[in-house]
Fold this protein.
Amino acid sequence: MARALQPVTHTHRLATEADIPALHAIMDAAISGPLSTFLTPAQVEASRMIMGVDSQLVSDRTYFLIEIDGVLAGCGGWSRRITEYGGDHTPGRVPALLTPGIDAARIRAMYTAPEFTRQGVGRLIVGLCEEAARSEGYSRVELVATMGGEPLYRASGYREIERFADDRGGVAVPLVRMGKSLKDTSADVGKT
Ligand SMILES: CC(C)(COP(=O)(O)OP(=O)(O)OC[C@H]1O[C@@H](n2cnc3c(N)ncnc32)[C@H](O)[C@@H]1OP(=O)(O)O)[C@@H](O)C(=O)NCCC(=O)NCCS
C-alpha cells in the first residue's frame, strides 16, 4: 500500500553566533555547487575572496536561516549598513549605517544548499528581507548579484543597475548591481 507523502515543513529564524560554523559549510557548498555552473573554475575560486560569512549580519540579527524538516536548507539576509557584499575577510568593508527613507537597504549573502535549490528557499528569504527592511522604513533595496544569484533576483522583481567585475580574488568575477522599490511591489522602479 502506498504511504501518504509527508508535508515538507519550512521554518525560518534569525541566525545566531552558534550557527556560524554551519553557515561557512553551506556557503562553501553553494559556491562549489550552484554557483559553479555559471562561472569558470578560476572564477569560482576567486569568488571565495568576495563572498562568505559576514558576521556583522549575524550580530545585527538581520540574517535568516531556512530549515526544511529540521535541516539547514538556505541562508541570506539584509543590511542597514553600507557594505554591499563580501565576507569578514573581504577588503573594503564600510560598516557605517544607511539612512531609512534616503538610502537603499541591502540584500546580502544568499545561499541555498545544493540539495535544496529550486524549491523556493531563496525567494522566501528575499521576501523576509524585504518585509524586515520595509518595517524599518526603507523604501528601496539594492544588492550586488553573482551570475548565479541574478535569476533569483530577476524572478523577485529586481532590475539591473550596472554590470561590473571584481578582480580582488585574482581573476575578474562578473557581478551585477540590482535594485527594487519597496513602495510598489508590482512594478520595479530600478534606475535602468
Ligand atoms: C542563488 C541561489 C541562492 C538561489 O536559491 P534557490 O533557493 O534555488 O532559489 P529559488 O528556488 O527560490 O528560485 C526562485 C526563482 O529564481 C529563479 N532561479 C533560481 N535559480 C535559478 C537558476 N539556477 N536558473 C534559472 N533560474 C533560477 C527561478 O525563476 C526560480 O523559480 P522556479 O524554480 O519556480 O523557476 C542559489 O542558487 C545559490 O546558493 N547559488 C550559489 C551562491 C550564490 O551565487 N548566491 C547568490 C549571491 S548574490
